[in-house]
Automatic annotation (TrEMBL):
Protein name per Swiss-Prot or TrEMBL: PhnD/SsuA/transferrin family substrate-binding protein
Entry-linked PANTHER family: ABC TRANSPORTER SUBSTRATE-BINDING PROTEIN, ALIPHATIC SULFONATES-BINDING PROTEIN-RELATED
Segments forming domain SsuA/THI5-like: 88-270
Organism in which the protein naturally occurs: Streptomyces alkaliphilus
UniProt entry keywords in alphabetical sequence: Signal
Amino acid sequence: MKRTAVAVSAALLLLPLGACGGTSAAGDDTTVTVTVGYQSKTINTVTAGTLLRSLGYFERHLASLDDGVTYKVVWEDHATGAPITAQMTAGKIDIGSMGDFPLLINAARGEELGRPTKLVSVTGYNLRGGLNTIVTTPDSTLTSLEDLRGRKISTSVGSAVDGTLVRALQRAGIDPEQDIEKLNQQPAVGASALAAGSADALAQFVAWPGLLAHEGKAKVLYDGAQLDLPTFHGVTARKDFAEDRPAVLEAFLKAQDETTDYLNTHPVAAAEKVAEATDLPAEVVYLYNGAHGISTFDPTVKPQLVSALKQNVSLLKAAQLTDDVDVDAFVEDRYLRKALGAAYAERLAATPPDPASEVWPKDAGTTETFGTPRELLAHVAAHPDGIRAAYVPDATTGTLWFADKAVWVVDGEKLLPFVAPATARAYIDRHDGARVITYADALERAS
């Protein structure tokens, strides 16, 4: 079945939205307005958006410029990267944050319309692709990608998760153009479609899969980390803005770096702040942004991420969303290098923390880390009324997930969690005697 209305909807994603508010970084000699586009609920971007805004670091750095200019920061919140790109190419947003595929569209549209943009930093990333997930309803009988053949799948065309969906289907031998019906929908609309039964599965980026799982409205069908290909979100700036006001961009990047330090040093407090600003449950925010969360926050533009961008160009071209994109020309980290100074090289070489099992006790401002999932289960079993949230990493991909939503496998004395049924089955197929058990059984065995 050919997907319907995708071409028209994809084209609409790229049209300038002149009705949106915001002004470019312009003004008289004493007053300048800087407009920042961000996605409050896409919590992989919080160090350049929601958390940065709540901490006020950008405004503080602008005030410290002491250049005789009064700066006003306008924050524009959007659901996806597409409207941010539209506003940037219209000269109405100066700095924006979005996912890897939207970043490429941002680059292409900027060049096409004579408003070139530059990738200046990264917000959060996952080197295996765990930021994107495909989910189904809790009572769905679908258990694998192969089961999606002939089904309706909701996603956001041109988004990072759309790339994950296309790649995953292709690896499973499913033609994303012919064998499924793709519904091009905003994340909230897709979540409603899944609940209403008008979509059989939902492919979305942070924080939607975790939110729906936490609320008991979805279960994981596919963990994006199975692709083993980096996904990330980054910060893009208009080239003319960066060249005209480099000190302002550097102030933003310094503020982003300080916000990153705050998030990494105070992960629970950061999750609470983001939750308050977005109305997302703090437990969901922490799943992605916590000390061992799915996302690693680091502003440097790592070579692995640039390589992934280059691999993504072919998918966007095949979907007729872009022509060729010169990724090397798009990446411009000299502003960040100047902002971070000697610390840049150390940050660039940094690697993600090792996956770990973690418990967030009720009424606590810190979490507890455990060496194995079995140790975490034993603790949860011993404190049935004292746990706010428990997280475990997938035994093969390392993707963090809620312990009570994971697929549990017993293998001798080992109790192993998996995000998706497919990764659990793959383990069982390689280990005689291993089998799936319920979460309740896993708790009992651990205790």
